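ARCHIVE CARD
CATEGORY: sequence design from structure
SOURCE FIELD: tokenized fold
FIELD CONTENT:
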């Protein structure tokens, strides 16, 4: 069917075309069977697909012609039908006005070719539906209040919905189309929604199929724009089965000093919401009300073990729990962000000091205490000391040995010392005060071993040189079998005795001095920067030109002998470069038990216009599954040597310090509230004890109100009595 001008017409061919199969001659099929509605074998090549159905699926009465050619000619000759266009001329075909056809033929047309009015709308949508590019751009760029983006499948869904609404708005506003479709009447929303539902499978839209709701959605879309299609369930606290208050209660139950398992926390929570146990704040005594943790019907909001485990193990909650349960050292190393620094360039710009126990024992089971001074650029040990005890003398002996080494080799005063508190704090007002002997002093935070450069050198020396020269280097709990020394358990009454080869104090010290000599004269690990040079060569050849000699008379005042006795929730690594998260709160968006993300980037070009490959991306975009996380920029590292720091280094330090401060604030703000769990029988016992207590003054033997004690309150009386007794 088609329009001729404003008249709905049907062609002569559509009226008289026979879509029934041509029966095979050899099959002997009775031609009358084709008019009886029976399915027969034959040639279906001439048959057409009608309303989306194959001809083999339709009954013969539908496939048969609407009218015969003889019938058509007879109606035409009698003037009972209006032929609006004659089929004359090359390529032309006759068109008959549908409205002039007898009713029986209109019904046949509807059976064979479908509803005429809805076909107008369907044809219009099929020809004019287009994906709205502006809608896709809007939903792609849309961000929620917390910076999150729409998932890709929602972007596609909302774009299709907006495109369908745009098409419907256009057809409704087109008066001519609506008049043709509705026979001059007003808009029939039921028929329009019927057409939209017909195309639902093709376009995969999610618009309402109710006429009233569809019309309201269209009006709201036309007045408010694309954002009206975004579901209000996104970032809505009411859609969460586990609300914020429930999550905080779960964390509080996990704060018990026994450090319960996840399943134990789930059991306690479900017992609490059922009224089987009471949960209270140990500081204020306030009890939690189970009535606050119910669903809309008032039933206890019982949660599964898996749900509670998921919320306990979100990245943020894991950090909060570790802050409460773990030691400061474990928390710092596993969760707390740390600074990223670049290496110093000149030797003696910085000296890093640290103590250690030599790995092999003495005959009494104790280990020799050693103290080293490392030059951070070369990695050389420039000072060493040994003792059976870890005392302040160990530090002073190391300082003496360091200055002996520097003086013997004609080297000047180092510009900065990096030390820790526990052995050196007593020298903070003298030797280790900045500007007194050394220009600068850096005090490392306690418990933060990775902050101190000497810790890294200790490991390199132990598992490098010492491992090659000595027997028994390693730890019994080392994951690598080659680093586990031979230790045999002795089975006796104490059940705490182990047999391990021991060495004398002198032997251990001599072996360590030999290892230091070998270590200092090994090739520097950074042969790309120092080709063919040993650690000692780098120390001698790359000294800071700003170094100054020291005054021995002043220095020896402090060290001379006398007769008296620190990937964290901060950055990602891409192409060997670190990129910082914009805020520690980003970890709240990550999935439970999942810190893995996908990083996407494009390489930048150098000033000459040549690509740098994938070495240093300017920005990195992080996704987790279908959830957009954040945009990361390169971490601005700062020179660890304060003497070499520029304004850019200081700014980089401030930036990293701000990030760590934000993380600390997040940990402080989200501090888990400890609780105590009171069993029902304990609660009843406490209540009975409180009810049976007597108020003050009711006890037997109370003193009468009129009794006079003023004699015993006179202090002068006792003073006089004391003088008289003397």
């Amino acid at each position: 069917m088609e329009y001729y001008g404003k008249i709905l017409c049907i062609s002569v061919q559509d009226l008289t075309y026979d879509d029934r199969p041509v029966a095979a001659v050899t099959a002997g099929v009775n031609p009358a069977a084709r008019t009886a509605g029976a399915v027969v074998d034959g040639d279906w090549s001439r048959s057409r697909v009608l309303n989306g159905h194959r001809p083999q699926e339709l009954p013969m009465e539908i496939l048969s012609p609407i009218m015969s050619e003889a019938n058509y000619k007879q109606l035409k000759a009698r003037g009972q039908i209006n032929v609006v266009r004659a089929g004359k001329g090359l390529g032309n075909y006759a068109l008959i006005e549908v409205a002039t056809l007898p009713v029986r033929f209109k019904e046949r047309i509807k059976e064979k070719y479908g509803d005429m009015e809805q076909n107008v709308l369907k044809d219009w949508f099929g020809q004019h539906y287009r994906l709205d590019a502006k809608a896709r751009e809007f939903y792609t760029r849309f961000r929620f209040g917390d910076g999150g983006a729409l998932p890709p499948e929602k972007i596609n869904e909302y774009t299709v919905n907006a495109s369908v609404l745009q098409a419907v708005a256009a057809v409704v506003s087109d008066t001519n189309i609506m008049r043709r479709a509705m026979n001059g009447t007003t808009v029939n929303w039921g028929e329009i929604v019927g057409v939209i539902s017909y195309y639902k499978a093709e376009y995969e839209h999610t618009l309402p199929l109710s006429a009233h709701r569809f019309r309201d959605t269209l009006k709201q879309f036309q007045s408010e724009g694309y954002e009206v299609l975004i579901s209000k369930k996104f970032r809505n606290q009411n859609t969460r089965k586990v609300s914020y208050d429930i999550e905080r209660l779960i964390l509080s139950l996990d704060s018990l000093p026994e450090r319960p398992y996840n399943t134990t926390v789930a059991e306690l929570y479900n017992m609490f919401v059922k009224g089987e146990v009471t949960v209270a704040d140990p500081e204020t005594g306030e009890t939690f009300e189970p009535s606050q943790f119910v669903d809309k019907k008032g039933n206890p909001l019982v949660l599964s073990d898996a749900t509670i485990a998921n919320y306990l193990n979100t990245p943020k909650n894991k950090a909060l729990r570790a802050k409460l349960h773990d030691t400061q050292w474990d928390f710092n190393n596993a969760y707390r962000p740390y600074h990223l620094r670049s290496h110093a360039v000149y030797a003696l710009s910085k000296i890093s000091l640290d103590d250690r126990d030599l790995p092999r024992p003495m005959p009494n089971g104790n280990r020799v205490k050693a103290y080293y001074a490392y030059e951070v650029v070369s990695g050389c040990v420039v000072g060493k000391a040994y003792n059976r005890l870890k005392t302040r003398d160990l530090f002073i002996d190391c300082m003496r040995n360091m200055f002996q080494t520097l003086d013997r080799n004609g080297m000047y005063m180092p510009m900065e010392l990096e030390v820790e508190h526990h052995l050196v704090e007593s020298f903070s007002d003298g030797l280790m005060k900045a500007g007194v002997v050394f220009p600068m002093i850096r005090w490392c935070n306690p418990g933060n071993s990775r902050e101190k450069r000497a810790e890294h050198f200790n490991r390199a020396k132990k598992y490098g040189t010492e491992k090659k020269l000595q027997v028994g280097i390693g730890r019994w709990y080392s994951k690598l079998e080659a680093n586990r020394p031979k230790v045999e358990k002795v089975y006796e009454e104490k059940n705490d005795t182990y047999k391990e080869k021991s060495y004398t104090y002198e032997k251990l010290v001599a072996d360590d001095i030999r290892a230091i000599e070998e270590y200092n004269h090994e090739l520097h690990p950074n042969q790309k920067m120092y080709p063919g040079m040993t650690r000692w060569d780098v120390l001698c050849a790359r000294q800071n030109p700003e170094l100054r000699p020291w005054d021995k008379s002043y220095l020896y005042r402090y060290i001379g002998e006398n007769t008296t006795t620190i990937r964290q929730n901060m950055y990602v690594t891409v192409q060997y470069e670190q990129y910082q998260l914009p805020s520690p709160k980003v970890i709240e968006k990550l999935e439970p038990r999942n810190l893995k993300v996908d990083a996407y980037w494009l390489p930048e070009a150098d000033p000459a216009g040549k690509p740098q490959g994938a070495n240093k991306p300017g920005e990195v975009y992080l996704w987790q599954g279908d959830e957009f996380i954040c945009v990361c920029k390169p971490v601005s590292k700062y020179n660890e040597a304060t003497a070499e720091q520029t304004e850019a280094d200081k700014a980089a330090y401030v930036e990293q310090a701000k990030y760590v401060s934000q993380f600390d604030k997040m940990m402080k703000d989200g501090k888990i509230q400890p609780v105590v769990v009171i069993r029902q029988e304990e609660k009843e016992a406490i209540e009975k004890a409180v009810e049976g207590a007597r108020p003050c003054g009711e006890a037997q033997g109370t003193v009468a109100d009129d009794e006079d004690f003023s004699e015993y309150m006179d202090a002068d009386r006792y003073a006089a009595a004391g003088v008289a007794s003397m």
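CARD ANNOTATION: The CA atoms of residues 29 and 115 lie 34 Å apart. Residues 24-39, 605-614 have pLDDT under 50 and may be disordered.
SHELF: design records, drawer C
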